[in-house]
Amino acid sequence: MSNQTCLIALGGNIPTAEGGPAHTLKEGLKSLARREIEVKDVSRFYATPCFPKGAGPDYVNAAALLMSDHTPEMLMQVLHEVEAEFGRARTQRWGQRTLDLDLLAVDAEVWPDEKTHAKWRALPMEEQMQNAPDTLILPHPRLQDRAFVLVPLADIAPDWRHPILDLSVREMLACLSQQDVAEVVPL
């Protein structure tokens, strides 16, 4: 597999023994670099309200542009290994966490197919909170709905186009409510 451009979202809202969430995000990026993944660019770090609201302390979020020869599945495995290195326990969907690394996109690939992507993109919020796909979905099926993803992503890849929606990051961000965008504040 050739070197691919990969976009990830980073987040955390629980400190580790080494420091707070911003420190953990920085160390997580260093860990990725030690695993033969080139970190090409990183957004500013942002303070964001916990999602869903009331589920815990507020988050620190960021986005990164990576270059990798890994398949998307292998890259997901590496992201999960790095999360575990920093004490991430996958016990609750959308629960509090020390480090969350979400694979948002790999070039313009659609995984596993457009029909499956459409199903997960249209899933009602109640079902999103209860169900997780059993396969990798790319691009991330809800990236277009989340200011805490799009605001940092606009720092590093404002012109990246969603291969199904045919909207740039900048255009998806403009579709969100001003209130949601205003809640994502640079640290």
The amount of beta strand, in percent, is: 15-25%
Assign the CATH superfamily: 7,8-Dihydro-6-hydroxymethylpterin-pyrophosphokinase HPPK
Determine the CATH topology.
Alpha-Beta Plaits
When the domains are counted, the total is: 1
Distance between the terminal alpha carbons, to the nearest Å?
A: 37 Å
Helix content: 25-40%
Order of helices and strands: EHEEEHEHHHHHE
Write down the overall mean pLDDT.
91
Quickly name the level 1 CATH class: Alpha Beta
Unreliable spans are: none
Count of helical segments? 7
Structural class, judged by helices and strands? alpha+beta
Q: How is this structure best summarized?
A:
This protein has 187 residues and is an alpha+beta fold. It has helices at 21-33, 72-85, 114-121, 125-130, 147-156, 169-174, 178-182; strands at residues 4-12, 38-42, 46-48, 59-68, 100-106, 185-186. 33% of the residues are buried.
Can you characterise this structure?
The chain is α+β, with helices and mostly antiparallel strands and 187 residues long. The protein has one domain (4-186): Alpha-Beta Plaits (2-Layer Sandwich). The protein is built from seven helices and six strands; from the N terminus they run βαβββαβαααααβ. It has helices at 21-33, 72-85, 114-121, 125-130, 147-156, 169-174, 178-182, and strands at 4-12, 38-42, 46-48, 59-68, 100-106, 185-186. Strands 1, 2, 3, 4, 5 and 6 form a six-stranded antiparallel sheet that branches. The longest helix is centred in the middle third of the chain and has 14 residues, at 72-85. The termini are far apart.
